[in-house]
């Protein structure tokens, strides 16, 4: 599955230099229910906000990178439902994936510990060894959002790699 970018051992800034422009990279988008995974997916795909409904199962979209070092890179993004009963299925989507985007709801401070637990479980899975994990702090545009939700969700070996413009924040889980 995918082009193998995630298991190349590349870390940090060198990750983007290793992106192939031919074969699509397979990316699993995970996170608790109502974190905004589907909204983020369609924001990436169509560059606009769309009304969405809770995902039961998955959504899959091809996205072509349009800026910076990701320009011209093709991604096949699997947005997987985050309801508790669906979480055991996540491993089916992360097995042999090139990358994982873990979406955290910046407004839901009551569930940050649960999000951290699921992120840790995902990151520690032997199937995900060497797979880069991007943590996306969603809903940063809302007044009740926590400005630094990733501080509570990051694990001991994580590294902040920057800020995203607009309403999302990013971080990377390092193994």
From TrEMBL:
UniProt keyword Nucleotide-binding, yes or no: yes
Keywords: ER-Golgi transport, Golgi apparatus, GTP-binding, Lipoprotein, Magnesium, Metal-binding, Myristate, Nucleotide-binding, Protein transport, Transport
Record-linked InterPro entries: P-loop_NTPase, Small_GTP-bd, Small_GTPase_ARF, Small_GTPase_ARF/SAR
The keyword DNA-binding is assigned to this record: no
Catalytic activity, as annotated: GTP + H2O = GDP + phosphate + H(+)
Any Pfam family hit: Arf
PANTHER family hit by this protein: ADP RIBOSYLATION FACTOR-RELATED (PTHR11711)
Family membership: Belongs to the small GTPase superfamily. Arf family.
Protein name: small monomeric GTPase
Source lineage: Eukaryota, Metazoa, Ecdysozoa, Arthropoda, Hexapoda
């Amino acid at each position: 599955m995918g082009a193998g970018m995630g298991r190349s051992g590349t870390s940090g800034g060198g990750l983007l230099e290793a992106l192939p422009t031919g074969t699509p990279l397979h990316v699993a988008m995970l996170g608790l229910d109502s974190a905004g995974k589907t909204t983020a997916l369609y924001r990436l795909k169509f560059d606009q906000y769309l009304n969405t409904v809770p995902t039961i199962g998955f959504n899959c979209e091809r996205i072509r990178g349009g800026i910076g070092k990701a320009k011209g890179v093709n991604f096949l993004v699997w947005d997987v439902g985050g309801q508790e009963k669906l979480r055991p299925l996540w491993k089916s989507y992360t097995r042999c994936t090139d990358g994982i985007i873990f979406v955290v709801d910046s407004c839901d401070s009551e569930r940050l510990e649960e999000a951290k637990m699921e992120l840790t479980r995902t990151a520690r899975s032997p199937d995900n060894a060497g797979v880069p994990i991007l943590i996306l702090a969603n809903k940063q545009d809302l007044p009740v959002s926590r400005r630094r939700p990733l501080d509570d969700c990051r694990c001991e070996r994580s590294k902040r790699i920057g800020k995203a413009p607009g309403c999302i924040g990013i971080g990377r889980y390092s193994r």
